[in-house]
Write a structure and sequence with these properties.
By secondary structure, the chain is an alpha/beta fold. It has one domain: Response regulator (Rossmann fold). The chain is built from five helices and five strands. It is globular and about 35 Å long.
Length: about 140
């Protein structure tokens, strides 16, 4: 787990990125590395659960399949629902199917995005929840 990037101000929001692919995790963290947003990144379920126990998040972006485990992201969503109940949750997957989508929604996913994920789509979802990103100026 990487520590938070510190862009604190009067109304700091917090984003948890949970993704086992380094390049995707880094791209998502960079997307939210803006003023008034604190980003925490986790590469696996264990790190994500630890981060969720430490603080509340406003947005959780998690891959559904973490380190080859089909339910890793579902575990993260279940924990987020209990520990950060007001967070918007974006579930990412390269393996979409209706059963997984339904399970994700039951566990608190507010949005379901198929990989390869368009960063503008993720930024737009975040903006609807009041969370700024590096692409905020490109969102209508």
């Amino acid at each position: 787990m990487t520590g938070p990037s510190h862009h604190q101000g009067p109304t700091t929001t917090s984003v948890l990125i949970v993704e086992d692919e380094d390049s995707i995790r880094d791209s998502l963290a960079e997307l939210f590395d803006v003023e008034r947003v604190e980003v925490v990144s986790a590469a696996d379920t264990t790190a994500a659960l630890a981060a969720l126990r430490e603080r509340d998040f406003d947005l959780v972006v998690t891959d559904l399949r973490l380190a080859g485990k089909h339910d890793g992201g579902l575990q993260v969503m279940a924990a987020a629902t209990m520990l950060s109940p007001d967070a918007a949750v974006i579930a990412l997957t390269a393996y979409p199917n209706e059963m997984v989508r339904l399970a994700a929604h039951r566990l608190g996913a507010t949005h379901f995005v198929q990989k390869p994920a368009d960063l503008l789509v993720i930024a737009s979802i975040a903006a609807r929840h009041g969370i700024p990103s590096a692409l905020s100026s490109h969102i209508d």
